[in-house]
Each structure stands twice: as structure tokens, then as C-alpha cells.
Design goal:
mainly alpha, 3-stranded antiparallel beta sheet
Length: 430
């Protein structure tokens, strides 16, 4: 990995792309620390020290690199764009027009991207209004002795909402700039930047508490083991061989080649864990606005914390469900079988048409089962390790942070290597 980066910096055009990417990432971190107008930063620091972030707000805070609980300009981070992208993908199942656009190729993809942008701004407006209202009412940091928003007039709150929404649009633009002019996927790299920025603070908080460096070393060991597992499984694929028959078109012969369909073990990526965490965090967020003496609020507080048995059980079931659900949306055996039949391809030993569909469905179900078990273990092992070691801190998002960091790192290095091969390719006779 280091050699790839060193070689890339020796290449002028790749060096400019890398420096441009690093500059955008630095600008993103600057916006994450810039406070929103109307927020008392000193009071925010006091409240952050008195409370522990959890639930849905803690989830968003991870992807914003700690910017949410600082109420900065980039407080919402990349979460509105992630949510909008997932919603647009899910709508392909229920809206025929979206499925048609997906099949149209580049022009249809551009139109879907435009819809994603509009939905991102709408979600950013909705989420910023929720965050500002929660902060102004004092429910963002329950029990805090000082107000984080001293001026709760409608004009001041509206200015905060507009600022955070504009920050969401700027983050989306910065991500697209990295994708177009830099290296790697822009949105993924911004998520990577946020997680890496908050990881050292979370680790040092363990050493600074009563746990000491012994348990910090144990946590680092768990992270290293999880990293090795992620690298091994994310690189693994199930290859289905495909043979293309020979065809004569005019005087030329086409086909006759052998290829394969690669199916990753973790086809759905990190999305099932995001969905499961978001759904289980919603009752906690709603309970903050309820009467503390009511029965349902007490049940949520006592049973839906990250270390409770009911929470862990529901978390695991939701991860398994969304793994199969999202894979069924993104992997269509009928479409793949039709494309193979159209171009004269077939799986050796399997007849074209419906038998191919049944075979692909059988394989993807088996692979998805392994992927669901992998995601389940990756999400729950860090939490169980924290409970076993008796640490007060919750590792943010479990092993999903490791999955994102390692996955984005591998993807970026692959793109750097591919561009290096294009620029330094040596033929057989050179």
C-alpha cells in the first residue's frame, strides 16, 4: 500500500489528484469544526463532557466525525446523502420509472443522481430542523446545566437550519469533486475521513478512564483481528463460470470465451448494519421527547440500550433481514440470466433460461447466508468485547467502522494501482 502511494506521488498527474483529494478532505474537517451561528461553543463543550452520545444522534455523529454534537456547519455529515441514495435504490423496486432509468445506462443514472441530490437537500432540511429543535429544547444533551442555543428566537433557529442544510449541500458537492477530479469515491472517502478523525479520541478515552492501558491494548487487539477478518472476507468472491458459445457473424467468429460472474460474500456492504442501527435508535430518540415517568419511555430506556439483551437480539435479527433484503434488490438473477441468454452465454451443466435463474438464486442465497453471519459477528463482537471487559465506553457503531475504513482503503488502493498500471505498463517485448 505504501509503495503504491509513493509511486503515485512520483507521477505528476496522480500526485495532483492525490493532493486535490487531501485538500478536499482537509476542508471537510475544517467545516466539521466550524460552529454554526447561534451556538455557544463553550456551553457545547461543557454538555458534551457531561453526557454520552448514543442512539440515532450518536450514529449520525460518527459519520460526521464528531461534528453533530459540536453543532458545526457540517453537523449532519454525509448521512443525508447516504439515506437518499438508499431510498432511491429501494424505490427501484416499487417505482417502475426508476427501474427504467436504471436500465437506460449513463443518461438514466445521471437522472437518478439528480433525484438523489434533491432528496439529499430535502432530508438535510428535515434533519437539521430536528437537530436544531432538539438542541433548543435541551433534549440534545439531557441533564446539561447550560443552554447550547442561548437565543431560541425563530430567526436564529431558522438561520441555524439554513446553515446546516447548506453545509449538507456543500458536502455533497465536495464528494462529487473528489470523484471527478481526485482519487477514489468521494462520498466514501468523506465517511472514511470522519471515522478516522474520531477513532483516536475514542481509543484515548478508554486509556484515560479507569480501564487503563491494559484494556486499551485488548481493544486494539480486537480491532486488529476484525481488520484482518474484514480484509480476508471482503476480498473473497464466489466465481460462477460462464461459457460463451461460438458464433459466426459474416466471416468473423465471435464468442467461445470463458469468464465468470463474481459474487462477493458481503454483497450488501455496510447498509444492513446502518438500517438496523437507525431503526433501533429511533425509539431512543423519540423517548427523549416523552414523559420520563411514562411506562413506554422507561421500557425503552431500560431495554434498548446498546448493551441490553433485547437490543442485541433485535439488532442481530434486523441485520440478517436487511442483508437478504438488500441483496435481493441489488442482485437480480432473472436479469443476469436474460443477458447471458441474449449474448449466447451459459453456465456449464446448467440449461439456459429458468434453470439458470434457479441456480443463481440458490448460489446467492447460500453466499448471502455466509455474508449475514459475517456482518452479524462483525457488528456484535466489539460490543460483546466491551461488555466482557467492563468498559463504560461504547465502541461507536461496533465493527462497522472497521468495515468502512478497510473497505474504502482497499478500494482507493485498487484505483491507484489501476491508474499506475495504465501509466507505467510494460509490454512483453520491452
Amino acid at each position: 500500500m505504501l509503495s503504491a502511494f509513493m509511486q503515485a506521488f512520483k507521477t505528476p498527474d496522480l500526485r495532483s489528484k492525490l493532493l486535490f483529494t487531501l485538500g478536499i478532505m482537509a476542508l471537510f474537517r475544517f467545516g466539521s469544526m466550524l460552529p454554526t451561528p447561534g451556538v455557544d461553543l463553550a456551553n457545547v463543550e461543557v454538555c458534551v463532557g457531561e453526557s454520552q452520545d448514543a442512539g440515532l444522534l450518536g450514529l449520525i455523529n460518527i459519520f460526521s466525525g464528531g461534528a453533530l454534537l459540536q453543532l458545526s456547519v457540517f453537523a449532519l455529515g454525509i448521512m443525508p446523502y447516504i439515506t437518499a441514495s438508499i431510498i432511491i435504490q429501494l424505490l427501484r423496486v416499487v417505482v417502475p420509472r426508476f427501474e427504467e432509468l436504471h436500465k437506460e445506462g449513463q443518461s438514466g443514472t445521471a437522472q437518478l443522481t439528480e433525484y438523489t441530490r434533491y432528496l439529499t437537500i430535502g432530508l438535510g432540511l428535515l434533519q437539521s430542523a430536528t437537530i436544531v429543535a432538539t438542541a433548543a429544547s435541551g433534549n440534545l444533551f439531557p441533564g446539561c446545566s447550560v443552554p447550547v442555543v442561548p437565543d431560541d428566537s425563530p430567526l436564529a433557529l431558522a438561520l441555524m437550519i439554513v446553515t446546516m442544510t447548506a453545509g449538507t449541500g456543500l458536502i455533497m458537492w465536495l464528494g462529487e469533486l473528489i470523484t471527478e477530479r481526485g482519487i477514489g469515491n468521494g462520498m466514501s472517502l468523506l465517511i472514511f475521513t470522519s471515522i478516522v478523525a474520531s477513532m483516536p479520541q475514542n481509543l484515548f478515552s478508554i486509556a484515560a478512564g479507569n480501564a487503563g492501558f491494559g484494556k486499551l491494548a485488548a481493544v486494539v487487539g480486537v480491532i486488529l483481528v476484525a481488520t484482518v477478518a474484514v480484509i480476508f472476507i471482503e476480498q473473497a468472491t464466489r466465481r460462477i463460470p460462464v461459457q460463451y458459445a461460438k458464433r459466426m457473424i459474416g466471416r468473423r467468429q465471435y464468442g467461445g470465451s470463458t469468464t465468470y460472474i463474481p459474487i462477493k460474500i458481503n454483497t450488501s456492504g455496510v447498509i444492513p448494519v446502518i438500517f438496523a442501527s437507525s431503526i433501533l435508535a429511533m425509539p431512543q430518540l423519540i423517548a427523549q421527547f416523552g414523559d420520563p415517568a411514562s411506562g413506554w419511555v422507561q421500557w425503552v430506556v431500560n431495554n434498548l440500550q446498546q448493551t441490553d439483551t433485547i437490543y442485541l437480539l433485535g439488532y442481530g435479527l434486523l441485520i440478517v433481514f436487511f442483508t437478504f433484503f438488500y441483496t435481493a434488490i441489488t442482485f437480480n438473477p432473472e436479469e443476469i440470466a436474460d443477458n447471458m441468454k441474449k449474448y449466447g452465454g451459459f453456465i456449464p451443466g446448467v440449461r439456459a433460461g429458468e434453470p439458470t435463474v434457479r441456480y443463481l438464486t440458490y448460489v446467492i442465497n447460500r453466499v448471502t447466508t455466509a455474508g449475514a453471519v459475517y456482518l452479524l459477528a462483525l457488528a456484535l463482537v466489539p460490543t460483546v468485547a466491551v461488555m466482557w471487559m467492563g468498559l463504560a465506553q461504547n465502541l461507536p457503531f461496533g465493527g462497522t467502522t472497521i468495515l468502512i475504513m478497510v473497505g474504502v482503503g482497499l478500494q482507493t488502493v485498487k484505483e491507484i494501482n489501476s491508474q499506475l498500471q495504465q501509466r507505467h505498463y510494460e509490454g512483453f517485448l520491452s
